[in-house]
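Many introductory courses stop at the sequence. We go one step further.
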Amino acid sequence: MSETIHRVDYYYTIIPDKPGEAARVLNAFAEAGVNFTAVSAFPAPGRKSQLDFLPENSANFSKIARKLKLKLSSKKSGFFILGVDRPGAVAAILSVLGGAGINVTSMQAVCAGAGRYGGLLWVKPADLRKAAGLLDRKISASPAGRARPAGGNQPWGLGATESQVNVQGTIGQRIDRRGTKVEDLAGTGKMDSPGG
């Protein structure tokens, strides 16, 4: 496997199912400087929506949620997966867990571009430690893989090798008639407007 798997904290709240509610909550977190690994929303019973959060820094997120008077679920845990996109990437992870008798309760995976994919995976709380151990051993056996624990700000790298980056169709550097790179003037106020 060529994945990096991180154990992550997960919370949810229930909000009214009406236009702008999720934006209101997420804007309040953005203004407070809270960043998320992932956010998800879907309908809940009674004309409500469940808004899921996977914060990069759980302690800061919880503090801001209290200030916003947002009623959160208790902290739960899951896994955040980053890997090289290829046929069978997700199936390999699910096979490791299924082979050990661990049922995956939820899984989402999406293409992240540049030959990468990302995913979220949950198991029952009773299986969390066993799943983490299995995935850690499987990933550790791969020269490209490494596992990291859940917690605060996680500076994981999303670096890609040259073979994973596709620059086909990109725009080359633009140089004006004096030999100045137009990109070097960005944000100086000498091109369009002040600022960046």
